[in-house]
């Protein structure tokens, strides 16, 4: 029976041709609470929509007669090979989409040759995910593994988690800086979002005081014992806290996730972080901030290649990856497309999402006259505006 189910899934997956197809099919696989938590954004969803729409404002300037019979879409991250410049963004509570949750995503990423950033709020322990993410049947050598971090008011909670991550072998942590509080998400309030009782957070002990669910997620990173509240720490600052983090991270690299301005990029460099991710949390935090594709160039211009710059938000096609790399990103992370794939068919669905993005990226490279990721540059794009398009960026 189980194998018939998997065959049917495979047939259904082969009929899914795009990430938009995957998104539509995923909707029938999740209940309203999970679907709206995954797909939704903060406020009126202006930034959520703009993340995707920004990709349509950039046009590709293809070059022809350049022998594209061989094309290499690969790159590397922390000295590990990647099949293409694509990673899987941190997303909380993946077992809401499928019982195999984070482990299925990590296995698909390892087999494909991608990298996973595990959420602090995973429904699988960071040890199990590291094992799944670094055990691969098809890519040689060790795989890279990131852990997304929220710092709690009770620093012991964070230190315990970091010690576990170091012991498990994580390469880097990505500190999310755009969430001193959780954004205002109407769907979570209306649906009384709550982690169902059969699921558990994988990185906290029962008595840690950390839990999720209730009227608003913001209220609910809360203590079971009111005497010992344990929420995100909204008092984080550049000077004291990046240094503190360095002192408790051992050899793990420190990346910042959520940079949107040249000013903060400059501060990140000044504080010696190892890399940055241009992100607006998929439009789930402050509404009306810039789309990430449009924030990317000012960050790239300040960093000038001194540390890697990654980007996430709104990436739904291989041509979107192409455009972000042209604008100076070293790597793109995708969030929701992976969750849609997971909801549709577990590990195979995630693999389908990754394969679609790879096929589209490689074809875009070839049709635009590129055979290597290093050839992608701003000269290959133009920006559309109300008057037509600007041919030079
Ligand atoms: C359901 C969901 C849960 C998320 N959970 C986290 C999280 O726990 N930590 C975090 O830093 N970002 C989280 N994010 C944001 C993603 O890491 C990423 O920034 C965003 O999803 C990228 O946009 P995309 O979904 O349009 O690709 C989450 C995103 C979604 C959709
Ligand atoms: C309580 C988990 C918050 C996860 C998160 O960052 C998100 O939903 O965007």
TrEMBL record:
Which superkingdom does the taxonomy of this entry point to? Eukaryota
Ranges for the FMN hydroxy acid dehydrogenase domain? 11-386
| One Gene Ontology molecular-function label | oxidoreductase activity
The catalytic site is made up of 281 (proton acceptor)
UniProt binding sites for glyoxylate: 37, 150, 185, 281, 284
Q: Which cofactor does it need?
A: FMN
Coiled-coil region(s):
none
GO CC terms on record? cytoplasm
Task: Name the keywords, alphabetized.
Answer: Flavoprotein, FMN, Oxidoreductase
Question: One of this protein's Pfam families, by short name?
Answer: FMN_dh
Q: Which residues bind FMN?
A: 90-92, 119, 148, 176, 257, 279, 312-316, 335-336
Report if keyword Oxidoreductase is assigned: yes
UniProt record similarity statement: Belongs to the FMN-dependent alpha-hydroxy acid dehydrogenase family.
Q: What is this protein called?
A: Peroxisomal (S)-2-hydroxy-acid oxidase
Q: Which organism is it from?
A: Planoprotostelium fungivorum
């Amino acid at each position: 029976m189980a194998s018939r189910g998997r065959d049917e899934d495979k047939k259904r997956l082969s009929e899914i041709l795009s990430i938009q197809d995957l998104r539509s099919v995923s909707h029938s696989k999740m209940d309203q609470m999970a679907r709206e938590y995954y797909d939704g954004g903060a406020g009126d969803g202006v930034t959520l929509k703009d993340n995707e729409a920004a990709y349509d404002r950039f046009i590709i300037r293809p070059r022809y007669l350049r022998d594209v019979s061989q094309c290499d879409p690969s790159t590397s991250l922390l000295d590990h090979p990647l099949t293409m410049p694509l990673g899987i963004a941190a997303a909380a509570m993946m077992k809401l989409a499928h019982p195999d949750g984070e482990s299925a995503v990590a296995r698909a990423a390892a087999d494909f040759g991608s990298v996973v950033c595990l959420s602090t709020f995973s429904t699988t322990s960071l040890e199990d995910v590291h094992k799944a993410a670094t055990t691969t049947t098809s890519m040689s050598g060790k795989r890279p593994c990131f852990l997304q971090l929220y710092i709690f008011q009770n620093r012991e909670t964070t230190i315990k988690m970091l010690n576990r991550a170091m012991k498990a072998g994580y390469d880097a942590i990505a500190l999310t800086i755009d969430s001193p509080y959780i954004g205002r998400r109407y769907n979570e309030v209306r649906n009384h979002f709550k982690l169902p009782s059969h699921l558990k957070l994988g990185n906290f002990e029962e008595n840690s005081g950390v839990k999720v669910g209730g009227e608003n997620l913001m209220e609910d990173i809360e203590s079971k014992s009111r005497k010992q509240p344990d929420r995100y720490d909204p008092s984080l600052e550049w000077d004291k806290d990046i240094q503190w983090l360095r002192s408790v991270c051992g050899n793990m690299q420190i990346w910042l996730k959520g940079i949107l301005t040249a000013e903060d990029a400059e501060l990140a460099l000044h504080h010696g972080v190892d890399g940055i991710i241009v992100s607006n949390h998929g439009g789930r935090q402050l509404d009306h901030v810039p789309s990430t594709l449009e924030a990317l160039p000012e960050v790239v211009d300040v960093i000038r290649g001194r540390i890697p710059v990654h980007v996430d938000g709104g990436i739904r096609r291989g041509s979107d990856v192409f455009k972000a790399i042209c604008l100076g990103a070293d790597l793109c992370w995708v969030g929701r497309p992976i969750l849609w794939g997971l909801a549709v068919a577990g590990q195979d669905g995630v693999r389908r999402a990754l394969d679609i993005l790879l096929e589209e990226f490689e074809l875009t490279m070839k049709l635009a006259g590129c055979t290597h990721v290093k050839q992608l540059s701003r000269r290959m794009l133009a920006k559309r505006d109300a008057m037509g398009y600007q041919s030079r960026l």
